[in-house]
Design goal:
about 70 residues, about 75% helix
């Protein structure tokens, strides 16, 4: 996967999360609370990309909680 593909994927994922949060009337702090984590954990999930790390696991939980299907 090229760097640009990763960047594009990250942008699209964040956009879908933002859209769903807006639809629910939530902010990132609400998302973190619903997940039972600190808001920094959610922020890091959008800053760090890899397939076998804590931010990856956080993104998986976000997908489940917000019912976001893979791109």
């Amino acid at each position: 996967m090229t760097e640009q593909v990763v960047i594009d994927y990250a942008y699209e994922f964040k956009k879908r999360v933002d859209d769903e949060l807006h639809r629910r009337g939530w902010i990132y702090k609400d998302l973190a609370k619903a997940m039972g984590v600190n808001s920094d954990v959610v922020t890091n999930a959008f800053k760090q990309f890899g397939s076998k790390n804590k931010p990856y696991q956080t993104r998986q939980k976000i997908r489940e909680l917000l019912d976001i299907q893979d791109i």
